[in-house]
Amino acid sequence: MTPTRREWMGTALAITAASASSAQTAAGVTRFVRFQKGTAISHGILQGDMIHAIAGDILGSYRETKTAYKLSDVKLLFPIVPPKILAVGLNYRSHVGSRKPPENPEIFYKPITCLQHPTDPIVIPADSKNTHYEGELVIVIGKKASGVSVAGAKDVIFGVTCGNDVSERDWQGGPAKDLQWWRAKGSDTFGPCGPSIVRGLDYGKLQLKTRLNGKVVQDQSTSDLLFDCPTIVSYISKYVTLTPGDLIYTGTPGATQKMKPGDTVEVDIEVLAYYKVQSAALERKYCLILNLAGSTLSLETPSGTIDRIVSHHEG
Fold it and tell me: Torsions phi, psi of 160, nearest 5?
């Protein structure tokens, strides 16, 4: 049932990893999705506009089945159910601003209940006054890791996906700030994630863009991270054992803005290493946009990075 006196916002999350399955195969890039068809929830491999269902564990042993679904016939879910979620703060110099850069990754937790599917709305609590987007690259852990080196951490990373570390700034740092950001970054639906886990990339050479109502508001390469993905994983593993399926939001670039009812947010990570030209050329082909009532406004050749953008406000 729709919560009363709450404001709903949609978020679009996309990784434009490749334009065709043949290109993915050639480059060794695989996109995994988690989806719902009827009452059944499954994992699959995304190839073009088709999802090929798999049996088994994507982080362990699995096989591709003979069952395939059109992307338009399923609901995409956040791509994995993690044992835990961690996140990094102040990890781009452009976001640190005039503050002193951290000497080590600044880590905090987000509860699992903050996760939201890429096709479902962000629910902003009624007493929130200053909630911002934070487009981010998200690490997916593939192996148990404790005390791993930076070099060894590379083998621990299964893949990456997109995320929005939704943040209520007044609860994060205002007069009513949380002791440990339990609401500020952990409220229900404050962790949209997905839709694809992309494996086989150079995670340090990806372009991250966030759009607010179609306008680019964040645009920076993951090569500008103060602490790259292996460094983050290694540092966390010194103190907290990482387990398969854990998610790590790696930080947001630049300045962020308050979201208001009716806004739409897209987090788009473009693959520079292999498909820079194709990703740029096909960018508009990767969006499914819905209006306030949820009916389709435009749909251009869905290709695996579709996300509904929905918005609803109930007074």
Answer: -135, 160
